[in-house]
Each structure stands twice: as C-alpha cells, then as structure tokens.
Structure prediction request, 82 residues.
Amino acid sequence: MITNIELTDSGTEKFNKFFERVAKPGVKLQAVTFELLDILQDRASTGESLDYELGRQYTVTGNPEILNLEAADVSVTEEPDE
Prediction:
C-alpha cells in the first residue's frame, strides 16, 4: 500500500506561519516542505503524531522548533501497490 499525504488548507496555513516565524533566512521553504511531507507520510502509516521538528541549525532561536499538526491539517490517501 502506498500512502500519499498532503497538507490541507489549514495545514498549509499553519506550516507557512510556522516557517515564517522560526526559519532562519536562507532556509529553503521547498526543502523543508519536502522533508515535512516525507516525515508525515512515515508517521501517518505508523499512527504516530503528526508533529514536525525543524532542527536548531535551521531556526532563528537556535533551538529546535515543533510544528503541531492535527488530522484536519492533512489529507491521507492510500493506493494499492501495483
């Protein structure tokens, strides 16, 4: 089974606000988005929380920052393997 995950409008809004607030200048939005979706895909398939941690080397505070997402913030679809 292949699991596909996307952010809903509310998830996208939360992520964008999180990124704008905590990411250092020069950190690429697209790279962080791809990492977020990869992590969420793994977590959705195992039933883990949908939290995402941006590492301290990428934040303006120098501390890891956590984005808390809920089920309503993601859309999960599953497709059978071919």
Summary: Residues 29-46 form the longest helix (18 residues). The longest strand covers residues 2-7. Residues 35 and 52 are 9 Å apart (CA to CA).
